[in-house]
């Protein structure tokens, strides 16, 4: 028998602060507990002592000193290591969060602060009806993001009241499983593939979702363009180092919001983190396509990615076209029924290209590997040498390119033969100047081997460019994506080709355009407003007949064709180096870039990685490649875990296939990105 003194010595007092939802101040509750009491028992005692009748099912214990949730309710206090000095908070797991979407719209919704970010983002995307949530994540904005905005606010006497889309009634509020809303795994189309509006058969679904028909339109349609003043007031990175700072705030997908110090009602950015867009389908992805278009649009306008002036005008023309269609009330009548089948077929082709998927034609993959052979001009840069091109006979087969002095010598030894697997392929094109060039950066032991090819005309360029791009990914021209890639390159070149013969836009159309809204501030400063408007309207003639969703997909495709597309930058210091470098992380490779010049130094393909890990003591990322090649670096602009997660995340996304439907192996994601051996 235990005496009362024995009992009191085995138990102790535990003070728990209770986060009452209906009261402003938190209250302390003192419990008498013992080390063998499980966490569930502590919460039961707590609720009994509070003695307020309400639903406590979403509440859990948060340990402030250890910065962790006590979610394993069957664990005892001893097992967790909780003692009398522990500061515990009894608080709801779901709290309000403000999210700024890629279209800069602010939404306010209830999110789990106890689930890992990977799961929280999945729940957010289901509420917003965005498929493939694994491509997105949450970004904590840096001080630079608000820098210019604050300067402007000082001059404003009246505060700007922002229109916030409130989704507080979201199904996650009670902690129950997320209602699908419009999110569907069925093959029933839920959006019109032409204009992106929800089809009538899915209207009844809105009753179960906080995403009403009106709210869905806000997310699926492009917002009116920002004024040139507002655009000039936003933060624009000027260098690779500036761009690296933008990527420092990605949250750790393997930890919860609370564990990463995120406060209730804090503002975060929801962004596409991984530039590997799988299975883009206009019938299901109106919101996803629009948000992707908006992220691409802002990357162009704020010069987060570089493009030529010619390309800027194409992007401007597409933006103007999309803006006009989005504002039009007659969008649904834009195409006649007879055109729908052709457009769906075109969208289907475009879809294959955007997702890098395979077409159904299997015969192409089992025939002999085709080859290209033609006269091209070659230039190999050397110091103190003018840029002089010399003509050779080129042969492209498998993933290799060889060149000979002339066609008659093709059966002999080539002047040089180069394998393009893992190389960088950069377009060097000026359609107006009839310049069709391809810049190749081929990885060699001591850096990059640089060469320029010059083609005579569009068709030749499209064939050779597509072959080079596929070869860089380890694919041959027998791959089913080769012909669609050729057609897409030709289509993009035609968009660049100004149609001087086309009818000049009417004065009325000229009047309703503010051209500075559609180009970067730096581009706007170079031209007078009327001149810029005329050039945008001239480029618009080539896209004027496009339906709304196809125009957005074309914009995304043009964005994907830019040389810097998909590169996320970090400032790093490589082991043994005395200077800082930029590390570019892409969907299939890592690139070491000279921070001063911006020139790529070395490329490593993910396919050649044997293993990678983090030395948590030295905060160093160590990567081992084939042939016993090692590299190691410390991150200077962000936590090393962020870069580690990027590498593992891209490798995880490469394992997806359409056979999996939409189920993901979350354990595999955490295994590849967690940084633990």
Automatic annotation (TrEMBL):
Query: Is Metal-binding set as a keyword in this record?
Result: no
Q: Which Pfam families match?
A: FERM_M (PF00373), Kindlin_2_N (PF18124)
Subcellular location field: Cell junction; Cell projection
One GO term under biological process is: establishment of epithelial cell polarity
Chief place where the protein resides: other
A cellular component annotation (GO) from this entry:
cytosol
Looking at the record, the residues that make up the PH domain are 377-473
InterPro entries, per this entry?
Answer: Band_41_domain, FERM_2, FERM_central, Kindlin/fermitin, Kindlin_2_N, PH-like_dom_sf, PH_domain, PH_Kindlin/fermitin
Task: Write down the superkingdom of origin.
Answer: Eukaryota
GO MF: integrin binding
Keywords from UniProt, A to Z, are:
Cell adhesion, Cell junction, Cell projection
Q: Which family does it belong to?
A: Belongs to the kindlin family.
Protein name per UniProt: FERM domain containing kindlin 1
The organism is: Mandrillus leucophaeus (Drill)
